[in-house]
């Protein structure tokens, strides 16, 4: 299959806006520079042409930008699938992100907000290839972090958030302390 190597620049660049999405939409893979939108366009075209499910695997080390790359691919599908402005599917799919980040993200030596989850996101399309919904399954990758953290790292964010909220009445019965 197609392989794209991307580097996380750790800052916003103007290479992911609507204009760039439209520039890659409808193009052939080799006609444009390598880009997450080129990979997404190829999967989208093959889905429509062959009427078969497609997969994009985003892999890399901690802090490589996997979650951001997946968000860009979803933004591409929402835009070319005609649903970005209609129902804001991308926002709905990613609405659970803050909760998921609290439960599955932790401070590592490379990244203060590193996802410790593997994610499988399944996007549903209708017969006109418009997004109609999505399911996200998550897999906790580092269960050992619950009881042990390496030097200069910390546990999952949710534990710190619970302890910081320990004085709230709804947390009283949990027996949390600072």
From TrEMBL:
GO cellular component: cytoplasm; membrane; myosin complex
Signal sequence segment: none
UniProt binding sites for ATP: 60-67
Keyword Nucleotide-binding among record annotations: yes
Myosin motor domain boundaries: 1-178
Keyword Cell inner membrane found: no
Keywords linked to the UniProt accession: Actin-binding, ATP-binding, Motor protein, Myosin, Nucleotide-binding
Any Gene Ontology biological process: actin filament organization
Molecular function per GO: actin filament binding; ATP binding; microfilament motor activity
InterPro entries the UniProt entry points to: Kinesin_motor_dom_sf, Myosin_head_motor_dom-like, P-loop_NTPase
Coiled coil (residue ranges): none
Family per similarity comment: Belongs to the TRAFAC class myosin-kinesin ATPase superfamily. Myosin family.
Name listed for the protein in its UniProt record: MYO5B protein
Organism classification: Eukaryota, Metazoa, Chordata, Craniata, Vertebrata
Name of the encoding gene: Myo5b_2
